[in-house]
Amino acid sequence: MSQLVQRVSEPGPWVLGIDLGGTGATGSRIALEPAGAALGSSRRLLPEVRTGISEGATNPLDVAETLISAVRVQWPDAPLAAVGIGAPGVASLAGDPAAELPRLVAAAGGASVALAIDAVTAHLGALAGSGGSVVAVGTGTIAIGTDLRSIWRRVGGWGHLYDDRGSGAWVGIEGLKAAILTHDGVTTDAAALLAAAVARFGPAPEWPAQLSTRDDRGAILADFAADVAALAGIGDPVATRIMSTAGTLVAGTLAAALDPRLPWRASGVGGVFEAGGAFIAGFEAEFVRLAPDASLIDPAGTPLDGAVRLARLVASGDAPVGHPPFLWLS
């Protein structure tokens, strides 16, 4: 991020939203805007920062503290009223998040801080603060059904080793599995996937050394998902099957997050949805089959919008009550 000091003309106070990337390969997104203006109005979008969380490596609160400090250096005349942070892995990689909140408050110059798992800020963005269920699909997959007050229903998000069904990492794994079968002569139908994998990772015998020992292997696998999606987009049958199955699995995760105490309304966000085609077709068809009475709606906003919305709720005194392991408030 550039350290060039920039001035703002709008009166304060300001709110800061941070959507932390899940891995070093995924950028963290940061937005600053006046607390009193409409959501998205006069927004200052800072450049995407290639800083994130890798499995077993970086404490997400260390990353958040660094980003808050960088924002205050770059925008010294934007006094912060509140900060909203969406972070993957915060419950498992940050020790006791509540105990570490004071240092985030200090970095923010005394502003209130709300820290949430990334599913919560995805929910706040997609459903604009109303109740319902949302699935977020990027490197991983996690869904949450909540009213942001008393009902909190989580499904998925347990990591690519045994979960994250239909995620970018899952698609990457399935693509490599199909490619290695063709490489070994077990099948003959995944030649295109094999060629794409060789182009990205080199000869197949090199793949284990590249992937097995890396903390960021989930992100590397998710990068290959883009190749799988591209092949599906031009009609490759194996890639199409993988993307369709991914959509079906994501629909199952979202349907499981529906709760009879909540509005029967659902949405999906995340980079894998941008693949469109077979993924969306599989997702929509399976969700209708599993939850025919639920409304599947387009997201109202992004997880970054959700982080900003969370900060606005804190600044206005209307924030949800903290609810570990989903949400912590300073």
Automatic annotation (TrEMBL):
SUPFAM superfamilies with a match to the protein in the record:
Actin-like ATPase domain (SSF53067)
Q: Name one Pfam family in it.
A: BcrAD_BadFG
What is the protein name stated in its UniProt record? ATPase BadF/BadG/BcrA/BcrD type domain-containing protein
Recorded hits in InterPro entries, A to Z, give:
ATPase_BadF, ATPase_NBD, Euk-type_GlcNAc_Kinase
Gene3D superfamilies tied to this protein? 3.30.420.40
Q: Which residues form the ATPase BadF/BadG/BcrA/BcrD type domain?
A: 16-256
